[in-house]
Specification:
The structure holds 2 protein chains of 2 kinds.
Chain A lengths: L3 E3 H11 L4 E4 L6 H6 L7 E4 L3 H15 L3 E5 L3 H5 L1 H9 L4 E7 L15 H5 L5 E4 L6 H13 L5 E7 H5 L1 E3 L19 H13 L3 E5 L1 H5 L2 H14 L3 E3 L14 E4 L6 H9 L2 E5 L5 H4 L10 E6 L13 E4 L2 H14 L4 H4 L1 H15 L15 H12 L4 E5 L3 H9 L8 E2 L10 H11 L4 E7 H4 L6 H6 L5 E6 L4 H10 L15 H8 L2 E5 L2 H13 L4 E6 L23 H6 L5 H5 L1
Parallel strand pairs in A: 2-3, 2-4, 4-5, 5-7, 6-7, 9-10, 9-12, 10-11, 12-13, 13-14, 15-16, 15-17, 17-18, 18-20, 19-20
Antiparallel strand pairs in A: 1-8
Chain B lengths: L17 E10 L4 H11 L6 E8 L4 E10 L1 H13 L3 E8 L5 E12 L2 H10 L6 E5 L3 E8 L1 H11 L4 E6 L3 E4 L7
Antiparallel strand pairs in B: 1-3, 1-4, 2-3, 5-7, 5-8, 5-9, 6-7
Classes of the chains: A alpha/beta, B alpha+beta.
Chain lengths: ~600, ~180
Amino acid sequence: MGNLYSGAEIVFKCLEDQKVEYIFGYPGGAVLPIYDELKNHPTVKHILVRHEQGAGHAAEGYARSTGKPGVVLVTSGPGATNVVTALTDAYMDSVPLVCISGQVPTHLIGTDAFQECDTTGITRPCTKHNWLVKDIKDLPRIMHEAFEVATTGRPGPVLVDIPKDIQFAKAKYSIPKKEKKLNRKISNRFSQKEIDQLIELMRKASKPVFYTGGGVINSGPKATELLRELVSLTGFPITSTLQGLGAYPGDDSQFLGMLGMHGTYEANNAMHDCDLLINIGARFDDRITGKIDEFSPKSKKIHIDIDPSSINKIVKVDLSIVGDVAEVISATAKTLKKKNLNLKKLNKQKISKWWQQIEKWKTKQSLNFINSDTIIKPQHAVQRLYELTKNQDTYITTEVGQHQMWAAQHYKFSKPNRWMTSGGLGTMGYGLPAAVGVQVAHPKKLVIDIAGEASVLMTMQEMSTAVQYDLPIKIFILNNQYMGMVRQWQELLHEKNYSESYSEALPDFVKLAEAYGCVGIRAKSPDELDEKIQEMINIDRPVIFDCHVDQDENCYPMIPSGKPHNQMLLGPKDQDENKITGKGKALV
Amino acid sequence: MVKSKSAYSTPSKLGKLDTNIFVIWVDNETGVLARVVGLFSGRGYNIESLAVAEIDHKENLSRVTIVTTGTPQVIEQITLQLKKLVPVHKVANFKREDKKVIFKEMALLKIVANPAKIKKALNACKKYNPVILDQTNKSVVIQITALRRDIDNVTKNLKLLGLVSTSRTGAVAMTRGAEIFN
């Protein structure tokens, strides 16, 4: 006979067995028994946030920068509803989260009790799976299953809702044997035949391009290494989605930069004109494809993804390979070597023409902007930040909007798990709490949230968390006093009717920093920028950096809505040069 | 072309819609039906009919049958999305025209009318395995089993003969011959 443990104890025993080091949470009535148990488990450290959404995003930041699942602990009712945004965000961007929520006692469920809500009902569409624990005997199995579901296949969030009486109830605890493999949800279904087909297509291609996404990062560091090997083995150009940045070195000559709505001219044109498109771990998101009917019209398409439902969802492909990216690439590289196929040499002539075309596109220098001596251009700020931090291992998070795109365009990542941004859901307020989670996981590393002044105010309260745990995160605000992306769309599409997009009544960010007990820095002109950034880097405390930038700057290049990849709108420099033939303007 | 003001692309032309029947084996646990149905409503798929019941008490298995319409691409998506749900064991789907599969739906029809009309009503149901479950001199409850569109037709005709209440189960499906779903 084993010992009897309370539900709360079982929760921690599971966390210990899952080697969980940190949980992000906020106490409340329905989780008090679990909080009471916290003191007996020193290996599990609790980070107290200031709002449950912050707990969710912090856990996301932790998960994305470590590859381990993030764990969240919240109370019933408002605790659970507040975490819904973060769960949805994690669901869209495939981030493994395990959220434990308290619930009113079993006998009160359904009676509209105090702080009761239908948590499993509310979170059903934004989790991979969720459980309401109605019997203490199920708790160990459910807890371990939760980790299993969150981390296997395409990762994602799960939620375990535990009524308060279950937290008090007692049961035996043992690590459940891995029984039936979760209804056989196998993720590696590819065969050697498919790999051979892939290689055959690669061999025949004369205008190939790799289009890689967050799946490469989720597959782990080995996938990144293998990808680099494959790209070098083939000599093919490679472009990446927003989420995939860092999987391939951003400063490598085979890298075309990010693709999509604000991607580079060369990446998008390569996607449009290629004859072979190899999608590795990306999902043909609508910000990537532009107009579907005219998406990459001349290419054979290959899709490698661990999630079968991603295949043929948006774009019909010619060859699909369902599997873990690392294993598929590894099998491909092995086969290439075994067949002694040197694609680089074999295709050299064919592909060299393709590369010439790409070089031509590159001369457009589509990320260019007109710099200024008097006012800080936001792109310039990101470039300076990159130059001054690239010599150390830096982790970047962002909020959502123009600054996010500028960060993606101008900050070059060389390693995976260094770039945390809300892509699918586009959650303003993501970056600050995410930075908290990243810094918790990497206390000695430089962690910077490239932020906008509007986004960052949505979760500003988490500065308290950073101060409480001595997390020296740097909040680098590109302050243009506008919801910049909203303003940009209004300028381009709504006749400059800037409806409600001006950031009225902004706080003094330097004083705000001081009020939180951290350091505030302000930069207003380009000549003080470097020095101030350096100052920020040197401070071993949380910093809010208020960088005043050009209010009217737009994010270019861009694919105007409903247009295909080869009809990009380039920046002001190019627009000036092409005034007469400036088709671009009419396209917006 | 009218200039689009949307940050999203405009919809492309819709393909041809087919009627398909999904058969889904699920763990019989709390909320499982909500997961299946929520997937349909959340992703904008259509449900024409839904039938569900436990089929194996020991294995704790339920069988859900859903009739839906969609383009071939949507039907494939539904299949793949359903397979991702944790409590789902297997998913089969068939075109309505599939000759290898039997589709049947049961309906209970209450007719309140004079004996002459009731007789006519029973006659109209003749082809659909009618069973009289209850009869008075003013009314009758008839059980029929038939294809969905046959029941559609029969109920339309019976409206004139005193049909006052209809209860339908939604279609269920079974393969012909020795074959089983896999």
